[in-house]
Design a protein that fits this description.
By secondary structure, the protein is an alpha+beta fold. The chain contains 2 helices and 9 strands; from the N terminus they run ααβββββββββ. The strands form 2 sheets. Strands 2, 4, 5, 6 and 8 form a 5-stranded antiparallel beta sheet that branches.
């Protein structure tokens, strides 16, 4: 029996028994996953209390948004905003939890910024990641 015939018989048997083969992942899904991986893969880790503002940073082509999440510490959540160097003002304060949260959207590559921050209870500790 040739390898090709054996493979065909095995496939026929599996189909008869009701087994199905999952469809390959779509190109769009793979592209979205790769983009998220490269964006979050470039994240920097920062610790609340070490500095008043995180940064300065410069946005990259890895992400179109600035994203942040809490990865450790005893705080229940944190607060952050994005202060763009050009304006010197915070965009808006965002509550940061354990999952990725967008703190600024559609930011141009090469934009300089800092991230003022805080935690839910003074004296709490927190570790964050910022992806940009």
């Amino acid at each position: 029996m040739t390898a090709r015939l054996a493979r065909a018989c095995l496939v026929a048997l599996l189909v008869t028994l009701g087994f199905t083969v999952p469809a390959p992942a779509s190109a769009a899904g793979a592209t979205a996953t790769a983009a998220a991986t490269s964006c979050y893969g470039g994240a920097v880790t920062v610790h609340y209390g070490e500095v008043r503002d995180f940064g300065p940073y410069v946005t990259t082509s890895r992400c179109t948004d600035i994203n942040m999440r809490m990865t450790g510490g005893d705080a229940d959540f944190g607060w952050a905003c994005v202060r763009f160097e050009r304006t010197g003002a915070c965009n808006y304060w965002t509550k940061i939890g354990r999952s990725w949260t967008t703190i600024a959207t559609d930011v141009l590559n090469g934009t300089r910024f800092t991230v003022p921050n805080g935690v839910d209870l003074e004296g709490s500790s927190a570790t964050f990641q910022i992806a940009f």
